[in-house]
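Intended use. Records such as the TRAP transporter large permease protein entry shown here are meant for training and evaluating sequence-to-structure methods. They are not intended to support clinical decisions.
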Amino acid sequence: MSPDLLMIGSFLLALLLGMPVAIALGLGGLVGIVAGLPPAMLGTFGTNTYNSVAKYPLIAIPLFILTGLIFERAGVAAALVRFAQSIIGPRHGGLTVVAVLVCLIMGGMSGSGPADAAAVAMVMLPSMQKAGYPKPFSASLIAASSSTAILIPPSIALILYSIVVPGVDLRALFAAGIFPGILAGVSLLAPALYFAKKYRWEDPEAVERPPFWPSLKAALPALFAPVIILGGLRSGLFTPTEAAVVAVAYGVLVGCVLYRNLSLRNLWGLMTDAAVTSGVVMFIIALAGIFAWAGTTLGTFQHLADALLSLSENGWVLLGLVMVLVLIAGMLLDAISIYLILIPIVLPLMNHFGWNPIWFGILLAMNIAIGQFTPPVAVNLMVTTRIANIRLEHTIGWAMVFVAAMALSLVLVMLVPGIALWLPEKLGYVVGSW
């Protein structure tokens, strides 16, 4: 059996046996080295592991994870919900608009779908249940809406993509994710509003509209967070990594001084949680470095890309095939693992067909976002169903409705690259041709 098959086969077997993704990646890389390279190459294990994580931009990942935890516990979601309710007002489906809007704003603070889902679900689910929405519908909508956090900057997944794909400007990626993220949210609203009106959920006369100005005043600290992060990046005041530091500092100010829902003792616990989560992420990245080095040295990734190219010379056919593969992977794996596993394989395809790397990165992110609320794994859906105290299988029907809706927005961005590339181009970032 060839080293290529042994490496890929051992990785897939390890996953099927229930091993953590990081261990499976490291094991697959080691098998590839032993099978196809001189034994002395095993000495590169430590070097490649270290080189995988010794990258300055990666510092932003634990910091944005900490930012998301701080804003989640600071009570930001509750303030945003009241503000959104004051704007939308009482109407059939009004709470669905509030849920999607708050998820989009929270995505601009956390960069993490599961953290976004937890924060919004804790606040929105009781209100939606009281208004007559079925729990499976509410849990599915919030899970789907919170998946847009992978598109709305600061996105942890886009940070990783900018590191894995050479020559990609993270600021351009952040800007490119804004309109597709909003489009994804709007696409979810269409079926949500339809079913809310069809089944007469949320009686407008039974819903109290919060006063606008007090709600705005309470929500202003939260609303300023995305403005500070994106404004600082656009003005050149700080780099993306420095933006993560600013976000943490601002989150501490909001949670401890303005909202006063956090104390120094709480911060210690949040930093511990962020360190544990970041450790898992960095462990995956470190061992994925072994897998990537072995696959590149053996030529495994190029061989896989050539096999895909042999299926068709039509770029649109192969792009559709890649999107299907990413969707399937998104149903089973987390975003970080998908980027680390699939990017080395699809990078030759991207270069062969001249796909714009910024546009392609957004397509991958949108696809992975869909996977975050698509069973069987559906990490966002797991979070919201746990909070709603229902079984995940009860949400499958509603989840598929929202999967179809967001898939339409993905197809639209595929056909009209300008949806993603217009804003970064107008802001003066290098985006290439489209």
